Amino acid sequence: MKDLLGLMGKAKEMQAKFQAMQDEIATLEATGQAGGGLVSVTLTGKFEMKSLKIDPSLFKEDEVEILEDLLLAAHNDAKNKVEQVMQEKTRALTADLPIPPGMKLPF
Question: Can you give the pLDDT at residue 102?
Answer without folding.
Answer: 64
